[in-house]
Amino acid sequence: MDQLASHKSLADKIQHFQGQLLPTIPEHTLNTLMRELRGLVAAGIAEKAINKGARFPAFNLPDADNERRSLSDFLSNGPLVVSFYRGAWCPYCNLEINALQQRLPDIHATGARLVAISPQLPDKSIEQISNSNLSFDVLSDIGNILAKQCGLVFTLPKSLRPIYEAWEIDIPDHNGDSSFELPIPATYIVDTTGRVRHAHIDMDYTRRLEPDIIIEQLGNI
């Protein structure tokens, strides 16, 4: 990645990606994607998720090496940034994960840690860590247990499943079950008492929290 590209905002990178992707999608497929997304947004799932001021649920989840990691372990060293994402198969998630990796030194400079959580199996996380050279913890929330506690889980509409299959996205293979349940992409900043100090939850998976805002918010804790 050149120096100019590395200074683009996450929103700019997503817009650039969409500019290349959307013209390649057949109109019928694109209409189905947009219709289902509008329906999920209208369902108001994101509005029911835990938000600022709530206590973040305790967790004990496996990392890519199947080592258990707990919320209390992370918070013993400072605030924690928790990024829920759909999985390594999601290009928007990868753009976000890579943007967070680029700003990881700035996140660490605030005294905070970063962890990314998805329902994918640990072996899928190993591939992602290797492919993207990630140096922060990636945890597997198998069965979306933690995401459900946070109120983030939805079921991928049946009309979208053939589209994903045509794109060779095998969610059951990634997650190890046939539920087609996924988390809404969300970012939480949790202070050392376990309280959520900032939250970004958006059913529209194309809209993600800018790393600059994360770092700004960490500076206020």
Written description of the protein model:
With 221 residues, the protein is of the alpha/beta class. The protein has a single domain (9-218), classed as Glutaredoxin (3-Layer(aba) Sandwich), CATH 3.40.30. 41% of the residues lie in helices and 17% in strands. The strands form 3 sheets. A 5-stranded mixed beta sheet has the order 5-4-3-8-9. A hairpin with a 5-residue loop joins strand 1 (60-62) and strand 2. The relative contact order is 0.20. Mean pLDDT is 94; it is low at 1-5.
Features:
221 residues; alpha/beta; Glutaredoxin; 5-stranded mixed beta sheet; two-stranded antiparallel sheet; 41% helix; globular
The CATH topology, please? Glutaredoxin
| Radius of gyration over all CA atoms, rounded | 17 Å
Low-confidence stretches: 1-5
Number of helices, where a helix is a run of at least 4 consecutive DSSP H or I residues:
11
Order of helices and strands: HHHEEHEHHEHEHEHHEEEH
Strand content: 15-25%
Based on DSSP secondary structure assignment, what is the total number of beta strands? 9
Instruction: Please describe the biggest sheet, giving its number of strands, its sense, and whether it closes into a barrel.
Output: 5 strands, mixed
The CATH architecture would be: 3-Layer(aba) Sandwich
Widest sheet: strand ordering: 5-4-3-8-9
What is the rounded distance between the termini?
32 Å
Helix content: 40-55%
Structural class by sheet pairing and helices:
alpha/beta
CATH superfamily: Glutaredoxin
Principal-axis shape: globular
Summarize the structure.
With 221 residues, the chain is α/β, with parallel strands linked by helices.
